[in-house]
Amino acid sequence: MFSSLGSLANSLSGPFSNMGRLLSSHPSRQVRELPDGTDTVRVDLPGNTQLLFVRDAAVMATLAERRGLDRGNGVNLLRSVFGTGTLFLMPHDTAHHRRAGEFNRLFSQRQTDASTPDIAARACRAVETVGAAVAAAPETPVDMQDVILRYLFDVGAWAITGVDVDLGAEVAVFRRGVDALHREATAMLKTALAANAPWTADYMAREARDAAREFQEAGRRMLIAGAERHGLADTLALRALKRYGIDPASVDASTRFPPGILVEVSMNLAASLFTTGNLIERTLDHFERHPDELRALRLSIREDFPAGVRDLPQLRNCPTLRALLPVMLAQSPVGIVSRDVVEPTEFVDGDGIHHQLRQGDAVIFDVEGMQARQALKLDQALSEEGRPTLDVLNQRHDDVMQVFFHGPNQCPGRFLAVADSALFLIEMLSSFDLHSLDRQRPLERGIVNRLGGSPLMRLSPVRPARAEASPVPATPTRTLPPSVGRAISPP
Fold first, then answer.
1. Residue 170 DSSP one-character state
2. What percent of the chain has pLDDT over 90?
């Protein structure tokens, strides 16, 4: 009898010790500790359940199409913060299909390509604003997180409404909410508790939830501004008004909107900021830490974009983007994608091993690791100069874009995210040398991966490339005033 009890204790110690390790750190950190060469790793948990780590892109593509894997109770805590109607938290049903279809139409490659000049103008304006501040106070550090978010607020609000909306006052609210989210919703113990006892979600992440509610003011302002475009364009703001039965012509500053529409529109904007802002900030950090890569990139920018990106008609493959895009994707803050098993499903992994997933299991996709393996394929996809760069985000190139996931839950804003990030980075990196005050900013892994430490940087203008030396004239020269700007020989 005692021998049987001992065997039972040993069999239970594995699942419970595994659960203890899972609750002590976030899966986005744990997946980096898995041994190399292991594409599918099973972790047994109490209750005859399992967690499956997947690092094989082909397996991810297969499972992403399965209805048995979806957003289940594992996102209860996030739903308590962002609302159940937020697209990136909705289960894959009819409502999700309809909303995702709107995004895919309004933020398609064709639409984003057509919007390139508008996005580029905003990138130039953001960098020029920084330039004016640096010129006025060269020794004053610049809060680059603030600069990046103000630019993305500008682009995101315009993309949702079709008009310019000044949301500068909401930047501080957003930052406060993101900081709270990383503190409160990254703890796996809270996530597990909310998944197994949904009623507890309302008692956790209160600061993040309060900030999300305050951020709904951004949604209200976008709806008011976007309503003025009725009959002129098809936008997400107008689609939301129609879905809630609100006549855009009746909207004015005094309109009281249902809470659901405010959640939907404000969280659409938040989704465009949450990951893209971190991607840009991490890419700037990468080039600061790799000056040789930065020098090579600047040479390409001078060749490919001698006048900058202003009025650029379309992003097309060129040496600059061939060098920049892989770095951007490698800095993606989306380290993992998690899915709950809501219906039993089976699959065979790359080693021919058959797996059975039961309801209650969970799957973690290591998209960061998969993306790192696609460097050669990504370079090949970008090798044909002159083609639209956003072609590589098209479905036929899914095998080199792991960070955007696959299937019905593939990121619908991927074209806009790449375009607005690349355009801003080209302008900023070619205009300024950036030096972090905090030279050892740690990478914090959680819901998204982000840089810790201070976002303050000292900026100095990049000296223009020296022109080719001209032949020395036989006689002395004098220079006319700058308004004329050329040299002539004296009479």
1. G
2. 52
